[in-house]
Specification:
The structure is a single chain. The chain is an alpha+beta fold and about 220 residues long. About 20% of the residues lie in helices and about 35% in strands. Strand 4 and strand 5 form a beta hairpin. The relative contact order is 0.24. The model is unreliable at about 200-210 (pLDDT under 50).
Amino acid sequence: MVPVMAAKRLLEVESKFLFNPCLVAVLRSNRGNPAFKRLEALSTHTFTDTYYDHHNILSKNGIWLRERTTEASMMLEAKVRISGDVSRSTFDETTNREEITAIIRPHLPEFSTKKKSFGLDLLAEFTTTREEFLVDNKFAVVLDDTDFGHSVGEVELMAEDEEKAHREIDQFIARYPWFFMMGKAEGKLGAYFKAKGTAFSASGNDNHHTKPVVEDD
């Protein structure tokens, strides 16, 4: 069973989407038809995500352990899938070391909680440039471009009621079809392993990686 870290805490509810890079300038200037009710550009920043696992045990249980590194900080985070799939999902997230330990220990009790990244194997590592917007005073819209050539967008809400949040995201996306394209968007991890190909193995004693059973972002 996937652990839920606390009752009534805010969940990350998200839907991935395809977008035409040629329309990003239109989005930035809010010149689409229809225009957004309100558009606020928040930031553009670059970070490197390093994912860890051991023989897919965490990913098989809907858990992702990653280290996110920016110019200013490095943070270990656990993401637990509550429901959904690659395109439309709900996660519980924590950066609290004790909570991360409680999540990982039932699945990998033999690994040391004192070691960096719990001594787990490197699963994937890539760099993302992210552009973030707040749209219509409520919806976080992020556009991600990776260093291996994959782009994907996400609409996110932090909410307690995931069903209501997904309905609101669906309605929001349907309101602006000029930017949010139809079709199933591929997550960054899935695209990463596709780009790397099947030469990446489950060894863990070398520099190879193993493809997770389920993707996160």
